[in-house]
Amino acid sequence: MQTIYYIGSIHASEVGQELYDEISAVYPEGRLSPRHFGSKLPKEDSRTLAVMRIMEEHGYKIRNHHEEFDPSQKYYNLQITREYSNRDLDQIAYLVPTPKTMAGALRRKNGILILAHDRARAIAADRMTYAEDGNIIVTDDLRRMMEEAGLLNLVFLEARLEKPSFRVPEPLWELTTELRMPPLSDRNVLIDNDCAPYTGRPGQMCLPREGLSVPEALYFPAELHYSARSLAAIEPFDLARTFEPIGQNVAHYPVASQRFHQFCVAAHLRVSWQPVQVDPN
User: Fold this and answer.
1) Residues 97-154: tens digit of each pLDDT
2) Which of 108-117, 166-175, 184-193 has the highest mean pLDDT?
3) Which residues pair with 206 in a beta bridge?
4) pLDDT for 192-210, tens place per residue?
5) Do the beta carbons of residue 98 and residue 271 sit within 8 Å?
6) How far apart are CA 268 and CA 128, in angstroms?
7) Which end of the chain is more exposed for a tag (fewer CB within 10 A), N or C?
8) What are phi and psi of 249, to 5 degrees?
9) How far apart are CA 260 and CA 257, in angstroms?
10) What backbone torsions phi and psi does residue 212 show, to the nearest 5 degrees?
11) Strands 60-62 and 112-115, how do they pair?
12) Angle at 240 (CA atoms; ends 235, 244), nearest 5 degrees
């Protein structure tokens, strides 16, 4: 795993040409245009540290959106991401899967997810696609493969295209599960889109963060944390959904086992994976 610091959107018109030239000299490749700078480098890269030091020497502070904005303070933006190799992902017990192709969910009709007709080619080609709200769509042949593999706790609900297409043999299926994960551990701070504490009131957005102070508040995406004790208390599974409704559309995110991950890798499915952290008791 590699930790990446992304310093973005530093414009000469805002920080002054002198400061802009100084940080550009440290990392010339960050000069995105004659007056616009941004860098994406490993945390330990000396150029990252040098740019941050220069910004601090000129009175700039990292903007933390979980703290009240001070109009008298000068800010710059820093986002921290983690990049995992395939070997890293193979060693992680649980992961959040997100298919790389959108299936284009339009609405539900009598509980059935209706998909955009113009996404038929993509659905047929990728076999596993992302609809919305954490929903995953699979083709009928992939459903059969999953059942034959004996994956646990999978539920398949009928899904349909808005109009039938010769490109996709129906039926299509919404892949879900009735199993819920335990609540996230205390390592995750739960807030809503107004940065107020998440209380679970109906319709309230839940945004897990790894902390509200720098640097924890800067990690994006935030990783989900569970205690080892809470996971030991639930039945073995290959697919579950988060206890908390997460994100803009208040959805219970899928959490997959390493066995589910290996099935997708072997089937050459185009899926992004976000590791889930298991914390010692």
Assistant:
1) 999 998 877 777 888 888 888 888 888 899 999 887 678 999 999 999 999 999 999 9
2) 184-193
3) 246
4) 888 889 988 887 888 999 9
5) yes
6) 10
7) C
8) -100, 15
9) 5
10) -110, 0
11) unpaired
12) 110
User: DSSP for 172-225?
Assistant: EEEEE-S-BPPPPPTTSEEE-TTSPBP---TT--BEEES-SSTTGGGBSSPPPE
Radius of gyration of the chain (CA): 22
Is there a contact between 214 and 76 (Cβ–Cβ < 8 Å)?
no
**Residue length of the chain:** 281
CA distances from 192 to 95, 152, 197 (A): 23, 32, 6
pTM above threshold 0.70: yes
- Residue 102 has phi, psi (to 5 degrees) of -85, 135
Go through the domains of the chain in sequence order and give each one's CATH number: 2-83 (3.30.70), 91-281 (no CATH)
The secondary structure of 78-127 as a DSSP string is EEEEEE--HHHHHT-SEEEEEESSB--EEEEETTEEEE-GGGHHHHHHHS
- The span from the first CA to the last CA of the chain, in angstroms, equals 23
Percentage, residues of the chain above pLDDT 90: 71
User: What's the maximum distance between 2 C-alpha atoms anywhere in the chain?
Assistant: 64
Residue 46 backbone class (left: φ over 0; alpha: ψ -120 to 50; beta: rest): alpha
Which residue bears the tokens 């809470």?
230
Of 241, 245, 154, the C-alpha closest to 192 is 245
Residue reference for tokens 């700039």: 60
Query: Which tokens in the block code for residue 14?
Result: 């805002």
